Amino acid sequence: MSYELIGISVLWLFLYGYVIIASIDFGAGFFAYYAKATKRDHIINQIISRYLSPVWEVTNVFLVFFFVGIVGFFPTTAYYYGSALLVPASFAIILLAIRGSFYAFENYGSKQSNVYMFLYGATGLLIPASLSVALTLSEGGFITEQDGVVSLNYWELFTSPLAWSIVALAIVSVLFISASFLTFYASRADDKTALDLVRKWALFWATPTIIMALTTMIALSQRNQRHYENMLDLWWVFGLSMGFFVIGMGLLYVGKHYGKAFIAIMLQFFFAFFGYGIAQYPYLLDPFIHIEDSVTNEAMGIALIAAFIGGLLLLVPSLILLMRLFLFNADYAKGKK
Amino acid sequence: MEFDTVMMSRLITAMTLTFHIIFATLGVGVPLFISLAEFIGIKKKDKHYELLAKRWARGFVITVAIGVVTGTAIGLQLSLVWPNFMQLAGNVIALPLFMEVFAFFFEAIFLGIYLYTWDRFKGKYTHWLISLPVVLGAGISAVFITTVNSFMNSPAGFTMINGEFTDVSPIGAMLNPSTPVRVAHVLGGSYVTVGAILATIAALALLRKKTATEYHKKALKMTVISVFVFSVLTAVAGDASAKYLAEHQPEKLAAAEWHFETERNADLVLFGWLNDDNEVVGEIRLPGFLSFLAHGSFNAEVIGLEETPEGERPPLWIHYMFDLMVSIGFFLVGISFLYLVLTFFKRWNANNKFMLWLIAASGPLAMLAVEFGWIYAEVGRQPWILRGYMTVDEAATSSPYITHMFFLFLALYIVLGALFVITLRKLFKNNPAAVELEKHYPELNKGDK
């Protein structure tokens, strides 16, 4: 495997990691607000805050890792995406900043106010929406280059069915992933009333997730025929994704093995996400950035891969320690520690 | 001054960094002091130090939050605002940027564990050990980022052929000529500044209230000793930086020192201003000292600004940034030394009002010195973004929306800054050290507080 393929696979894996971890976090924010608005916050907010407190800063790092890594492996992406994404990415930064810092202010500073809960819930849906613009742009036709000036065609973007269906898919996926994780976490904490509530949400958000995934496929077929046909060639990957979705739903419905149900849903997204990514090969930005042409020099590519392996050796044990102390420590989840 | 996209790009980056550097500095330094305090507390079995570590850690969380979000902002802005620079430089200097994320990740994980496990381990040292990866991660992050900035000043680790970088050596780029002196100066500067800020907090508490004086006196002593040690080290590193500049970036030193003509036995010019004929007026002149600063000998030749082509000279106002930074540095060495002398001779009261006011001033001044030093480092590199290879004009985005983004981010930083102050006040004002000592450590008798 050439080093550009290793590079993009690793980055895609990290982006997948971000999608899962950030979805849990973003969705939890929305559910916390929704529960408060419908006066059910006493049921689930304890669970949500016990999960979020120790991990909130970890989430952001996955995103930073992805964009620093992609600029490192494929410096041309800085030129095209950097130029085109100035406005959408700036909005995403501001939303992330509001969310991240308000979390600390409120949690450590004072009691939770309504304004804060609203912002926390709203940013949870707006951030995935603004970040998903990058995926839309990669399909081509939105970015133009003239006389060395790269610009984004906003009209084209805002009137594109693909852009809107990706936004909608991002939002419903966030809610689905988050609800199914919270179901697992509530069962872990032995909190029966919270479990009933979040399980209902998980079952509810499954349907829109599948509908939006299919809608996005149709919109994609009209925007980028090549990408769409590559995806059809990878039908078995999406078949696996669908299979895991059915398993996950089955377990949630029966009301057993919530941990395994969440793993199945993670695998559902894993296969869909990788199927989508592999089908976009060889482009990082259709038609400007071709993976083989845009990759950095060999010395840097190898250095980055070496740094990555070294980094993982350091991080994986640390992450396992974090999870054992908080996420998967039943006493902690129950609030005894 | 023309407010074109290049100017707006520079302003938005300057604004983000001016704001971020405050929290970055705190982020590098505070973990060291938390760790030190916890260690001393365990060693001396002194609950005061344990509480110090706890209270500092609590305040630290808020600064980390802003550090993280503004760090994410500048990380993305590098590509959004300077796409041409990142496309070119990314080929050579991506490695430390990438590793910095790992270092931060490492730090964030252990910080999370540290904050939530105060009473979860049996052995007292176990919890303290968790602070070490935080201290280390914070320090290494600073090292990596400083190598990137050093690379912008003294590019190395590649050969340029037909506008493209070949023979790239990522390690060579990281270990470029200015890296050692700058890393030392940045790390030392961060530790001094944080020591001074924490000393300011203790001094103000002693000036204002008469409660928990033992607790605050211990904090004061520990932080001022650190200020002395680190300010001396930072001054040494600063001196090495000057010698580096004289050799590798003479125009930056010359512009900062208003040294226009190449000469031996060059004078050091302090403050003053330039008249209409560009002559220095009203300055303090130390004969021969610039030669000494630059080369360690009063007779050495120092290259003047005349040897740099006119279009490649940095603006002359950085002279003030340099002088202010150095003056504050000497002030910090002096104040902390004075305090140590007073403490050494027991019959003099080291905690007298005058001394406390001087220490109270040192925190904000130290942070100003960080800002001045940073402005000097960046503006002194102009017009280059990558010295000798790419100017800021060539590097900036061409998007006309950069002006809108400037105001958007300005609003963000105002909100964040205001909420930061409000939250910290809430956190500590209603919960002073005296109250916490009473509540958590009732075993300490009244006399100890």
Describe, in plain words, how this protein is organized in 3D.
- The complex is a heterodimer of chains A (337) and B (449).
- Chain A has 15 helices and four strands.
- Chain A has 337 residues and is mainly alpha-helical.
- In chain A, α1 packs parallel to α14 and α9 crosses α10 (225-233).
- Chain A is globular, with a radius of gyration of 20 Å.
- The termini of chain A are far apart.
- Chain B has 449 residues and is mainly α.
- Chain B has one domain (5-238, 322-448).
- Chain B has 14 helices and ten strands.
- In chain B, the strands form five sheets. In chain B, strands 1-2 form a two-stranded antiparallel ribbon.
- In chain B, β5 (273-274) and β6 (280-281) form a beta hairpin.
- At the A-B interface, α2, α3, α4, β2 and α14 of A face α2, α3 and α13 of B.
Which structural class should the secondary elements of chain A be placed in? mainly alpha
The largest sheet of chain A is:
2 strands, antiparallel
Fraction in beta strands of chain A: under 5%
* Total of helices of chain A: 15
Determine the oligomeric state from the structure. heterodimer
Q: What keywords describe this structure?
A:
heterodimer; A: 337 residues; mainly alpha; two-stranded antiparallel sheet; two-stranded antiparallel ribbon; 4 strands; 4% strand; globular; B: 449 residues; 14 helices
Quick summary of this structure?
Chain A: The chain crosses the membrane at residues 6-34, 55-74, 80-105, 117-137, 162-182, 202-222, 234-254, 261-279, 299-327. Chain A is mainly α and 337 residues long.
Set down the secondary structure blueprint.
The complex is a heterodimer of chains A (337) and B (449).
Chain A: H1 3-37, H2 41-73, H3 76-84, H4 86-109, H5 114-131, H6 133-137, E1 143-146, E2 149-152, H7 154-158, H8 161-188, H9 192-223, H10 225-233, H11 235-254, H12 258-280, E3 283-285, E4 289-290, H13 291-294, H14 298-327, H15 330-334
Antiparallel strand pairs in A: 1-2, 3-4
Helix pairs in contact in A: 1-2, 1-5, 1-8, 1-12, 1-14, 2-4, 2-14, 4-5, 5-8, 8-9, 8-12, 9-10, 10-12, 11-12
Chain B: H1 5-44, H2 47-81, H3 83-116, H4 124-153, E1 159-161, E2 164-166, H5 170-174, H6 179-208, H7 213-248, H8 250-257, E3 263-264, E4 268-270, E5 273-274, E6 280-281, E7 284-286, H9 289-295, E8 301-302, H10 318-344, H11 353-379, E9 384-386, E10 390-391, H12 392-395, H13 402-429, H14 433-440
Helix pairs in contact in B: 1-2, 1-4, 1-6, 1-13, 2-3, 2-13, 3-4, 4-6, 6-7, 6-11, 7-8, 7-10, 10-11
Keywords (chain B): Cell membrane, Electron transport, Heme, Iron, Membrane, Metal-binding, Transmembrane, Transmembrane helix, Transport
Transmembrane segments (chain B): 12-39, 60-81, 93-116, 128-152, 183-207, 219-238, 317-342, 354-377, 401-422
Main location (chain B): membrane
